[in-house]
Amino acid sequence: MKEVYVNSLSIPGIERFAVGFDKMFDELSRTAGSLNGSNYPPYNIIRNTETTYTIEVAVAGFTESELDVELKNGELHVVGKKEGLTEDPAKYLHNGIAARNFIRTFALAENVEVQEAAVKNGILSVTLEHIIPESAKPKKIAITFQK
Question: Which 3 state secondary structure label does DSSP give 115?
Answer without folding.
Answer: strand
